[in-house]
Amino acid sequence: MARILGVDYGERRVGLAVSDELGLMALPLDILPAQSPKQVIRDILRLCREKQVAGIVVGMPLNMDGSRGPAVEAVDRFVQELRRQGDLPVEVWDERMSSRQVERMLIDADVSRSKRKGIVDKLAAQVILQSYLDARASRRDAETVGI
Fold first, then answer.
1. Which of 103, 95, 105 is nearest to 127 (CA)?
2. CATH of 3-144, one of 3.20.20.140, 3.40.50.300, 3.30.420.140, 3.40.50.720
3. Where are the domains of the chain?
């Protein structure tokens, strides 16, 4: 198996996570400033080469009812451009509540607001990627037993 990159795309920051080589565990990687989508894509594609990534999963920020809001349009444009410029498969994954889940976890762990700001995005990318990896493993397991 090859590594997969998880992306939490935001207006100000882009959180990144990468899987282990077995595709079982997501690890937080980095945070990029989202000054320019073109620069973010260049940085992501460079990281993919460095980390020998075979695919990318981008969190899709659907509304709680599953509808598409303004944030989804920005992520859609980003994903389309990432697919156009890169040669790796890019999938989207429902990320509802990932940032809130991480924020709550950090608050419960008594991490200060200033420290949370610096890590929430890459931990949200980790949550998105781990959710994707777990679902993929479940599908493989179901196929193995003939479900």
1. 95
2. 3.30.420.140
3. 3-144
> Quick check: helix, strand or coil at residue 127?
helix
Spatial distance between the Cα atoms of 103 and 112, rounded to a whole number of angstroms: 11
* Residue 11 region by backbone torsions, left for phi larger than 0, else alpha for psi between -120 and 50, else beta: alpha
Q: What is the mean pLDDT of each run of 10 residues along the chain (147 residues)?
A: 91 94 94 90 96 96 77 92 95 79 77 76 92 84 62
Tokens of 102: 């991480």
Q: How far is CA 84 from the centre of its chain?
A: 18
Q: Is the pTM higher than 0.70?
A: yes
